Amino acid sequence: MPFLIETFDKPDHQALRLEVRQAHLEYLDANVTLLLACGAKLSDDGTTASGGLYLVDLESREEAERFIKADPFHKAELFAEVNIVRWRQAYLNRQNTL
């Protein structure tokens, strides 16, 4: 069942995000089979990330919590807040999937 994980970076932690980014990307690559979609939330000018969205295919909230806690961004204490909710796909690639 899909879960949406939304993360919010701590203010003024852009340097930490950049420092840990490569390890974060390697973690995502190692878990690509779980990812339905994933990406950073950006400022309007596209230059600064302030958190991220993950759509993950996992069986339980506990698995989603373990997934995000193992992310190098989480381990580096980049996040001020993490929200996890179940998600139902309705549209994908401009197609109704219901």
TrEMBL record:
Superkingdom: Bacteria
InterPro entries: Dimeric_a/b-barrel, Sec-metab_biosynth-assoc, YCII
Family membership: Belongs to the YciI family.
PANTHER family reported for this sequence: PROTEIN YCII (PTHR33606:SF3)
Residues covered by the YCII-related domain: 1-88
The name this protein goes by in its record: YciI family protein
Signal peptide: none
